[in-house]
Design goal:
Elements: H1 2-20, H2 25-54
């Protein structure tokens, strides 16, 4: 499952960089902002999920 997540993450990164480096940067600027916000939110949710899943010392 971790390998699949890493593969998917790399696909997201590739898409992000392709958008940034595209020739028509003005047309994708709004899309890049949306993608950046989505990435930040997803990272936050992922980190929170890991924190709660691996924090066994606080489990009841």
């Amino acid at each position: 499952m971790l390998r699949e997540a890493i593969t998917k993450w790399r696909q997201v990164e590739n898409c992000y960089y392709e958008l940034i480096l595209s020739e028509d940067g003005s047309a994708v600027a709004d899309d890049v902002k949306i993608i950046e916000e989505t990435i930040k939110e997803t990272k936050k949710e992922f980190t929170e999920a890991l924190s709660s899943d691996f924090n066994t010392s606080l489990a009841s």
